[in-house]
């Protein structure tokens, strides 16, 4: 038998081995604690939502609202093959006739399936553009002049970028003869035929650096002209909102109501789809107001009187400086009024073709009213692409009060 020589260790070597042993034991301890926590977490997740979280209904309950059921989120299978399926939570919404959004909820393609084929293409071009714009807004670092990508490279100003995206999508649809943007207020040939589209690519771009909600407005008219038309001739119009959620509220000729579509962004099987989330058919009376262009109160006594009425009667002020979210809230809350009045020194700012008429179409389809002080904005003929108008959107009573107090007598 071969002998093995014993080699004695020095004190330094023994100390090093001791340290290594302690390090290994520490790692094993950490792994054990992590495994124990993971096991406990699985047990908590398997419990019903009601036993481990505060009820959403209790937090969000409001009077006279229609519930909107949200389908449960699904997670990956656990180690034992079971899924942690959570029961559906009910969110109380102010929208009228809000449908339950489930995995069977209609997509925008299904919603438009009975519409004229070229109109479908024109609408889908705008939905595709808004999806891309929403992504770019979320992932770009923007100031008032420009945006920067993740590497710090300067890109186009965000409203110009949005403008380009929409033009590209409309041109590729083949269903659009003419398009015009508030950024480029001329009629631009698109090479297709069927419809013409006017749009404000990024309403509220001046507040995007503050991370407020902004939006896109569009109107779709039949034919190849965008002048000499009225809002009553619209075939479809939409308000895209880029906020905590990305949504488009769409109104289509021949379909009652206005309908909100949510862009699914949760990495589920429906990721990237536009899904019907709620519908609007009624805008009732309620003390909520969004007053634009308040400088006009200086020399428009009617507007000053109207503002005083809101103040004296304790209306809720809900105004962000972006027309799209301020008008959208009227439909979601089911009440209120948005006003952008004018005066001799503070002229009307909103453009009839790109903002006023399409938004008026949506509001009226949602059960509300619109007015320039004398008549529905849908009755006003677009003489030039840069025509402007003062406007009120909201419930019948609030718009009637705007016509009575403000009208057009101080313009």
Mean pLDDT over the full residue set: 80
Based on CA atoms alone, the radius of gyration comes out at 28 Å
Question: pLDDT under 50 segments (min length 5)?
Answer: 1-20, 33-99
Number of beta-strand segments: 18
**Helical residues, percent:** 25-40%
How far is the N terminus from the C terminus?
115 Å
How is the biggest beta sheet arranged?
8 strands, mixed
Describe the model:
This protein is of the alpha+beta class and 411 residues long. It is built from 10 helices and 18 strands. A hairpin with a 5-residue loop joins strand 11 (246-252) and strand 12 (258-263). Strands 7-6-8-9-10-11-12-13 form an 8-stranded mixed sheet, sandwiched between helices.
Compact summary:
The chain is α+β, with helices and mostly antiparallel strands and 411 residues long. The chain has helices at residues 11-45, 49-52, 56-60, 108-111, 117-139, 158-173, 301-312, 323-333, 352-365, 396-405, and strands spanning 66-70, 89-93, 141-142, 147-148, 154-155, 176-181, 188-189, 195-203, 214-222, 236-242, 246-252, 258-263, 274-280, 284-292, 316-317, 335-340, 369-371, 391-394.
């Amino acid at each position: 038998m071969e002998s093995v020589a014993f080699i004695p260790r020095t004190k330094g070597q023994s100390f090093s081995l001791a340290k290594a042993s302690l390090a290994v034991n520490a790692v094993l301890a950490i792994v054990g604690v992590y495994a124990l926590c993971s096991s406990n977490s699985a047990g908590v997740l398997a419990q019903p939502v009601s036993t481990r979280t505060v009820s959403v209904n209790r937090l969000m309950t409001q009077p006279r609202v229609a519930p909107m059921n949200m389908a449960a989120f699904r997670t990956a299978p656990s180690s034992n093959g079971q899924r942690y399926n959570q029961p559906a939570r009910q969110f109380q919404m102010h929208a009228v006739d809000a449908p339950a959004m489930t995995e069977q909820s209609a997509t925008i393609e299904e919603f438009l399936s009975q519409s004229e084929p070229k109109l479908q293409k024109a609408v889908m071009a705008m939905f595709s553009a808004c999806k891309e714009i929403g992504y770019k807004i979320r992932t770009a670092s923007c100031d008032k002049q420009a945006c920067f990508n993740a590497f710090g490279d300067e890109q186009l100003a965000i409203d110009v970028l949005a403008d380009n995206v929409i033009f590209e999508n409309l041109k590729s649809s083949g269903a659009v003869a003419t398009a015009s943007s508030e950024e480029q207020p001329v009629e631009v040939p698109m090479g297709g035929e069927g419809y013409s589209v006017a749009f404000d690519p990024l309403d509220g771009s001046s507040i995007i650096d503050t991370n407020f909600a902004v939006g896109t407005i569009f109107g779709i008219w039949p034919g190849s002209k965008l002048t000499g038309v009225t809002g009553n001739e619209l075939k479809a119009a939409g308000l895209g909102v880029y906020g905590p959620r990305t949504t488009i509220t769409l109104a289509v000729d021949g379909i009652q109501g206005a309908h909100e579509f949510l862009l699914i962004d949760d990495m589920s099987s429906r990721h990237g789809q536009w899904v019907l989330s709620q519908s609007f058919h009624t805008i009732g009376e309620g003390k909520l107001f969004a007053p634009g262009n308040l400088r006009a109160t200086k020399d428009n006594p009617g507007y000053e009187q109207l503002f005083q009425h809101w103040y004296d009667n304790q209306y809720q002020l809900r105004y962000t400086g972006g027309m799209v979210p301020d008008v959208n809230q009227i439909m979601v809350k089911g009440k209120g009024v948005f006003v952008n009045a004018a005066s001799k020194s503070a002229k009307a700012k909103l453009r009839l073709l790109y903002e006023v008429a399409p938004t008026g179409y949506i509001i009226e389809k949602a059960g509300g009213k619109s007015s320039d002080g004398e008549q529905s904005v849908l009755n006003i003929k677009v003489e030039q692409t840069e025509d402007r108008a003062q406007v009120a959107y909201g419930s019948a009573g609030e718009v009637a009060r705007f016509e009575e107090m403000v009208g057009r007598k101080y313009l």
